[in-house]
Design goal:
Order of helices and strands: EHEEHEEEEHH
Largest sheet: 7 strands, mixed
Distance between the termini: 33 Å
Number of strands: 7
Structural class: alpha+beta
Strand content: 25-35%
């Protein structure tokens, strides 16, 4: 059976935010204090869609991960549904599937907590989210300090020194 997907794209929303809130990148904590999930930085592109039908045999044999992700959505999603998220990176697009286990209403938007479906995705998700946070940090520094005083490698090292220990372990 083929999956039916409903797509929801936040890129346009992220670009709108970037015009109004200092490059669209407010500081997002790396780790959620309540759940221990990794926060996807606000303002960084993420696409997500609900998976309506999934093969039962495949769903039952999946080994659960120990990592979850939290991202912002302007749409409510019911806990228990399966979703796929895609995060565009410079060289590839990272894809992850998971089950919605948390929904928090924050005024105009929702925080969606997604428990990853595959244990193998946990390690990859940690790396992808660190890259997203580093890129967000670089953009914030560029906005605050100007583009001419930036050394990407140095700033990446700076982020790793300050924040990498906050990324949940496996």
């Amino acid at each position: 059976m083929r999956n039916q997907l409903v797509s929801h794209n936040t890129r346009e929303r992220s670009q709108q935010v970037s015009l109004t809130h200092g490059a669209g990148l407010k500081e997002t904590p790396v780790k959620d204090q309540q759940t221990g999930f990794i926060h996807h930085p606000s303002g960084f592109p993420i696409d997500f869609r609900r998976i309506w039908f999934e093969e039962k045999a495949h769903a039952e044999t999946v080994e659960q991960s120990d990592i979850g992700l939290i991202f912002e959505s302007d749409k409510y999603f019911k806990p228990g549904i399966t979703m796929e998220i895609t995060i565009p990176l410079p060289d590839e697009t990272a894809r992850f599937r998971g089950r919605v286990v948390l929904v928090r209403h924050n005024g105009e938007s929702y925080e969606i907590g997604l428990w990853l479906r595959h244990r193998a995705d946990a390690s990859r998700a940690r790396i992808v989210e660190q890259l997203c946070h580093i890129e967000t940090y670089l953009r914030q520094k560029k906005f605050r300090d100007g583009p001419y005083s930036l050394n990407r490698d140095k700033l990446a090292e700076e982020w790793i020194t300050k924040y990498a220990s906050r990324v949940p372990g496996l």
